[in-house]
Design brief:
single chain; about 140 residues; alpha/beta; Rossmann fold; five-stranded parallel beta sheet; 5 helices; 5 strands; globular
């Protein structure tokens, strides 16, 4: 049913992604699918890395570790964007197309007052709307 699963990751917040990561691993094992981890970033240093080169190295190590620890095929890509807030969903849709992904598994933030007042936009909702493939949102 699924052969390649796209998994957006933010290495600066990996502790908040455990449930989504475990879900993607379970689905990959069930369908003998490969996982493709993707990070969309700008050039600004973050707590995950001081440069895009360092971030790409961290992402590569993360993907390799996940594959080794769970016995699944993994790959990765780092996508640079001048404005990740505006372009995140568009870049993820493009990454899904380019990698041949047939499912996206991603984490969602817990809804709060900012969502009810429409201060916080939902990346997951926008991705569900724009993607041509299924999107599994894990809360």
């Amino acid at each position: 049913m699924y052969s390649r699963i796209l998994v957006p990751v933010d290495l600066a917040h990996i502790d908040k992604l455990a449930k989504a990561l475990n879900t993607s691993i379970d689905i990959a094992k069930h369908y003998n699918a490969a996982l493709h981890y993707v990070t969309v970033t700008n050039r600004t240093p973050s707590s995950a890395a001081h440069s895009t080169r360092e971030l790409e190295d961290e992402l590569r190590l993360f993907a390799e570790e996940q594959g080794r620890d769970h016995g699944i095929d993994t790959s990765y890509s780092l996508i640079e964007s001048p404005d990740t807030v505006v372009e995140l969903e568009k870049r993820l849709v493009k990454a899904a197309d380019e990698t041949g992904a047939d499912l996206i598994v991603m984490a969602s933030h817990v809804p709060g007052i900012g969502d009810k007042l429409h201060f916080i936009r939902s990346n997951a909702a926008n991705l569900v709307r724009d993607a041509k493939i299924s999107v599994f949102v894990v809360r």
